[in-house]
């Protein structure tokens, strides 16, 4: 005799089977309650906006490791740079605007990965224009950066190409001030390859635009000084 299942039992079995088939992505922080409540919104968020939607996006960015100077509900420069860092990691338009593609990247928990596996390091990803602090192979913080443009320039009568060379280096000098130079002053630079440094700058475009240094925002550079990842003799991997 064939045993018939009650409709309620059949529904329960089906629900359990579906739950078992869904495997969560590893190491991706789930969207918090505040972000999940705002995520379905269809409107864009951009510089100058404010409110709970902005705050929820800021919190989600911070949860994923994108450096931001606080979740205050104000869409300012640092928020736009954090959004650009996420967009770079996701391979989508780097416009700093939270639209459908960016919301999808937030939902999916997009984060870059590291190449170093031991100790503390700063990694600079030239293709994606990202600077990352890394500890024992795990990315801790992600910043939008702008490196060598690849364009020719002249300094002290000599012609050069604006390049950030790949390789593994160490910080060998630091200046805790605006450091004047032939191409302009650098904010609190950490030099790792001749005159090439990680430094703060008033403008951090989403594309390569420097003479060879890795630019980050002024506030981001202040944080990097405090972080301990760019002390003298610390590793800087340009890849």
Automatic annotation (TrEMBL):
Tagged with keyword NAD: no
Pathway, per record: Cell wall biogenesis; peptidoglycan biosynthesis
PROSITE patterns linked to this entry: LD_TPASE
Domain L,D-TPase catalytic: residue ranges: 120-239
Organism domain of life: Bacteria
Keywords, alphabetical: Cell shape, Cell wall biogenesis/degradation, Peptidoglycan synthesis, Transferase
Keyword Endoplasmic reticulum assigned: no
Active site positions: 199, 213
Name assigned to this protein: L,D-transpeptidase family protein
């Amino acid at each position: 005799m064939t045993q018939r299942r009650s409709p309620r039992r059949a529904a329960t079995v089906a629900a359990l089977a579906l739950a078992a088939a869904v495997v969560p992505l590893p190491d991706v922080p789930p969207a918090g309650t505040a972000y999940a409540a705002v995520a379905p919104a269809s409107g864009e968020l951009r510089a100058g906006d404010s409110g709970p939607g902005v705050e929820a996006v800021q919190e989600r960015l911070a949860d994923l490791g994108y450096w931001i100077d606080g979740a205050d509900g104000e869409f300012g420069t640092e928020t736009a740079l954090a959004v650009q860092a996420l967009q770079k990691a996701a391979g989508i338009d780097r416009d700093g605007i939270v639209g459908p593609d960016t919301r999808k990247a937030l939902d999916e928990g997009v984060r870059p990965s590291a190449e170093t596996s031991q100790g503390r390091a700063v990694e600079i990803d030239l293709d994606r224009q990202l600077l990352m602090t890394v500890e024992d192979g795990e990315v801790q913080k992600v910043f939008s950066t702008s490196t060598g443009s690849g364009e020719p320039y002249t300094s002290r009568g000599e012609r050069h190409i604006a390049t950030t060379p790949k390789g593994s280096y160490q910080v060998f000098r630091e200046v805790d001030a605006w450091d004047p130079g032939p191409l302009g002053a650098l904010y609190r630079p950490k030099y790792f390859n001749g005159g090439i440094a990680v430094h703060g700058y008033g403008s951090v475009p989403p594309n390569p635009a420097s003479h060879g240094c890795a630019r980050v925002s002024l506030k981001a550079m202040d944080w990097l000084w405090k972080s301990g990842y760019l002390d003298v003799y610390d590793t800087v991997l340009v890849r």
